[in-house]
Specification:
The two termini are 20 Å apart. This protein is mainly β. Helix content is 0%, strand content 15%. Bound molecules: zinc ion (ZN) (2 copies). The site of one zinc ion (ZN) has 8 residues, from loops.
Length: 65
């Protein structure tokens, strides 16, 4: 019973390209962010260095805990 061990992630549409695909979302148009997904508090979804320019907080890979 170690469900808490790994954080859950969900797909969120990349704010930088709005789903079109760009280098920040690996050309998929979506990024995996920690659930529940929430917009980056630094830029409010505009994209900044803190969210890897995806507009989302808790980006998988960048901020693994
Ligand atoms: Zn993108
Ligand atoms: Zn940001």
């Amino acid at each position: 019973m170690t469900d808490q061990e790994h954080p859950r992630y969900e797909k969120a549409r990349c704010c930088h390209c709005e789903g079109a695909g760009c280098i920040y979302c690996d050309k998929t148009g979506y990024v995996l962010v920690k659930a529940p997904s929430c917009l980056c508090r630094h830029c409010g979804g505009a994209g900044c260095i803190y969210c890897g320019f995806t507009g989302w907080a808790g980006l998988k890979g960048k901020y693994d805990e």
